[in-house]
Specification:
Order of helices and strands: EHEHHEHHHEHEHE
Strand content: 5-15%
Number of strands: 6
Radius of gyration: 19 Å
Distance between the termini: 29 Å
Strand order of the largest sheet: 2-1-6
Number of domains: 1
CATH class: Alpha Beta
Length: about 300
């Protein structure tokens, strides 16, 4: 059974146990795999998926040689056509920013928002991130013997901005875990959104540089941020915290998961916009992978997949 290698966000749903890595049954690599299975009739060519993601991982955690290396766990005894990778946010201080600026999980011990943003900006501007990302990409490519598999592609997803920063309606609301948590002022929301934009730009630039070393692109960057327009926190007319608003495509701390049953469906059309972040990432990533793999392998009657996973 051909495989797909995944290192990506945890997604929604549960995996039957509350383990540290929190692999969601509705994470987008699983949904992509299910979509592929829905239009593959030959059981011998069914798509297999190695879901190796782990919430909170950094690039260093994924690299070969570590105690919990996802690259080392990648089973290469079966051929793979592509890897799904979601990484970078933890390296660039995502949790520290969300903790210090928004949630304040540790109250006064959470540090200041300004310091967290300054650290993140320094990390985004520094050379280490590009170097580590390139090292990870090359480890994955070398592990699958990419010279013998010219169609093998790594898909890297970006991140979505969390807030609508155009309206003042949210200025007096907070997502903080304690009394007197930080107010969601427009200025703070703009800073948070700018952080996401900067991370996406850095990922895209790093991937462009990596691809320049090859005759054809080996890595695809998928930016799905635009799909979230109208579905962020602090949309007009929404009183936060609104745990019941299904049109918000992020989950609040302590909110319900959308791990309900799903209905079988045909492969998604190119203009589909579904109702949570895993589905949206799945749609964009699926289209990018389809275009890349199908173009390269148009004369071959085989499709296999393999995702790598990191995220938050």
């Amino acid at each position: 059974m051909p495989p797909l290698f995944c290192i990506n966000g945890i997604g929604t749903g549960i995996n039957g146990s509350e383990v540290d890595c929190r692999l969601g049954s509705h994470a987008y690599p699983v949904l992509i795999r299910n979509d592929m299975m829905s239009y593959q009739n030959d059981c011998d060519k069914a798509t297999a998926c190695q879901h190796l993601s782990c919430t909170g991982s950094t690039i260093q955690d994924v690299l070969a040689g570590g105690d919990h290396s996802q690259v080392d766990l990648f089973n290469t005894t079966t051929s793979s056509d592509f890897a799904l990778l979601s990484i970078g946010g933890n390296d660039l201080g995502f949790f520290d920013i969300m903790n210090s600026c928004i949630f304040r999980f540790y109250s006064i011990y959470s540090g200041t928002c300004e310091a967290a943003l300054e650290r993140s900006e320094a990390q985004v501007a520094g050379p280490e991130f590009d170097q580590h990302l390139r090292l990870l990409i090359m480890e994955i490519l070398n592990r699958v013997l990419w010279e013998k598999r010219p169609w093998f592609t790594i898909t890297v997803t970006g991140y979505a901005r969390f807030f609508n920063a155009d309206t003042p309606e949210c200025d007096d609301y907070t997502l903080g875990m304690w009394w007197h948590g930080p107010k969601l002022k427009q200025d703070l929301r703009m800073k948070m959104n700018r952080m996401v934009i900067n991370v996406n730009r850095r990922l895209e630039q790093a991937i462009r540089t990596i691809n320049e070393a090859f005759t054809e692109p080996r890595v695809l960057f998928v930016d799905y941020d635009d799909v979230f327009e109208g579905h962020r926190f602090c949309e007009p007319g929404v009183v936060e915290l609104d745990y019941l608003r299904n049109e918000t495509w992020f989950f609040l701390v302590g909110g319900d998961d959308n791990d309900g049953s799903t209905m079988p469906r045909k492969p998604l059309p190119s203009n589909a916009a579904l109702n949570d972040s895993s589905h949206c990432a799945r749609t964009k990533a699926h289209m990018a992978i389809r275009d890349r793999v199908y173009q390269t392998r148009r004369d071959m009657d085989i499709l296999s997949t393999q995702p790598l996973n990191e995220e938050l």
